[in-house]
Amino acid sequence: MTDAVLHCANHPDRETTLRCNRCEKPICTKCAVLTPVGYRCRECVRGQQAIFETATPVDYVVAAVSSLVGTGAALVVLNFLGFWGLLLAPIAGGGIAEVVRFAVRRRRGRRLPLTAAIGGAFGIVPHLVLPLASIVLLRGGDLASFGGMLLSIVLPVAYGVLVVGSLYYRLRGIRL
């Protein structure tokens, strides 16, 4: 009993004994994708992933705007709390992620977490405008007031990084 030599469907010059467990197409080790149920070709994996892409274009706008507003509001509260805001910023980011998830009605999209994070990053900008303007206008004032103004920029940036980071990873499905 001799078996016919199979060649990869994508690379005809390569011999293989591997087949996609869904469509039975012969695939080489470069084309094979290991899934929990066995090896599949890239086309079958892409087709399966497309089922989970349920977000509409409007959802991306809703995610960006709701994270922008949520991050801006969170930074107001975190600035009021001072140093303790650094400890609560990741919690605020997780809460904003849940608000975004509710706003898009739990639809999923590959780029939805990134869109929400970019919107959240733009929510930081208003908190930096006034301190930056005061530093530019100070130009040679005393050093003590300059240090205080510099701190008024560093803290919102630190809060924003923590909020946006936890927002992004929470929407990606990673629990922090």
- Number of helical runs? 6
- What's the β-strand tally? 4
Average residue-wise pLDDT: 87
Structural class: mainly alpha
Q: Which residues sit in consecutive blocks of at least 5 with pLDDT less than 50?
A: none
Q: What is the count of distinct domains?
A: 2
- Percentage of residues in DSSP E strands: 5-15%
Tell me the major beta sheet.
Answer: 2 strands, antiparallel
Distance between the termini: 56 Å
Helix content: 55-70%
Rg, Å, rounded: 25 Å
Topology:
Blueprint: E1 6-7, E2 15-16, E3 33-35, E4 38-40, H1 42-50, H2 57-81, H3 84-103, H4 112-124, H5 126-138, H6 143-171
Antiparallel strand pairs: 1-2, 3-4
Helix pairs in contact: 2-3, 2-4, 2-6, 3-6, 4-6, 5-6
Describe this structure in words.
- It contains 6 helices and 4 strands; from the N terminus they run ββββαααααα.
- By secondary structure, it is mostly helical.
- The strands form 2 sheets. A two-stranded antiparallel ribbon has the order 1-2. Strands 3-4 form a two-stranded antiparallel sheet.
- A hairpin with a 7-residue loop joins β1 (6-7) and β2 (15-16).
Short description:
With about 180 residues, this protein is mostly helical. The protein has helices spanning about 40-50, 55-80, 85-105, 110-125, 125-140, 145-170, and strands spanning about 5, 15, 35, 40.
Keywords:
two-stranded antiparallel ribbon, elongated, mainly alpha, 4 strands
